[in-house]
Design goal:
The protein has seven helices and ten strands. The strands form two sheets. The protein has a five-stranded parallel sheet, with helices on both faces. Strands 6-7-10-8-9 form a five-stranded mixed sheet, covered by helices on one side. It is elongated and about 55 Å long. 36% of the residues are buried.
Length: 244
């Protein structure tokens, strides 16, 4: 039986946008990996994750972009994930250490997680080291000096891709909410927050940590204009113990 001396796969979350927010451990890893993978859309060859990490990537490193289709077709997505997993495994089989870059944290709504499942299924002996990264919602909360949770409060993290319906379903047991990917459905998310009496204590942050960062205090305005692609919303229920 043929055996392989695999390199190590490193999953690296590069944070929300500021290159200074990349973990020191990840910076040290980027100094020695042979190949760096990152996701891009099939519509372009741009990677925001690579742009953020660029100050920490040596000129000698090989950067390869993996195209991911923007589709809801599950079969098409799984075929893509499996194909990219095979591409990564091919480098690991050469004994190369490789990194896969994602925005924010590697395990929070990250493309890396989907590809990792196939890497482990196709080559379960591959050594994997995943380094946590700072999420956009953590950075946004810090930007507006707003605690995400206090005391015995709960925090619900939702994707905004399908609008505000999940909040409507789960709102009774939730104190604080984060809507990631609020881009196209910010209007319906705003409606859902109004229905749950959370709109007045909501704030949106677009492009957190980037040069064109924007803090949107009145989330209701998002019903009348399209926010930037990297937009998230922080919301909370009013409580009796809040400071005036």
């Amino acid at each position: 039986m043929k055996t392989h001396q695999y390199g190590t796969l490193y999953g690296i979350g590069v944070g929300p946008g500021d290159p200074d927010l990349i973990p020191l451990k990840s910076v040290n890893i980027l100094k020695h990996v042979a190949v760096i993978f990152a996701a891009s859309s099939t519509k372009n060859d741009h990677s925001q994750a690579v742009k953020i990490a660029q100050p920490h990537i040596p000129e000698t490193s090989q950067v390869k972009l993996l195209s991911f289709p923007m589709t809801k077709d599950q079969s098409e997505k799984e075929t893509c994930w499996q194909g990219h997993a095979k591409t990564i495994i091919a480098e690991l089989e050469k004994g190369h250490d490789v990194a896969f870059l994602t925005l924010g944290d590697s395990m929070t709504y990250a493309t890396y997680g989907y590809v990792l499942k196939y890497v482990l299924a196709l080559a379960p002996e591959v050594p994997v080291v995943t380094v946590p990264g700072i999420t956009a919602y953590q950075a946004a909360a810090a930007r507006v000096n707003r605690p995400l949770v206090e005391g015995e409060e709960s925090l619900l993290i939702l994707s905004g891709v399908e609008g505000g319906q999940r909040l409507r379903e789960l709102s009774k047991t939730v104190d604080n909410v984060v809507f990631m990917k609020a881009y196209r459905n910010a209007g319906d998310i705003s409606d859902a927050l109004e229905e749950q009496q959370m709109i007045d204590s909501s704030v949106a942050v677009a492009n957190c940590g980037l040069d064109d960062e924007e803090v949107i205090e009145d989330v209701k305005t998002l019903k009348h204009r399209k926010p930037g692609y990297w937009t998230l919303i922080l919301a909370k229920k009013h409580t009796d113990h809040e400071a005036p």
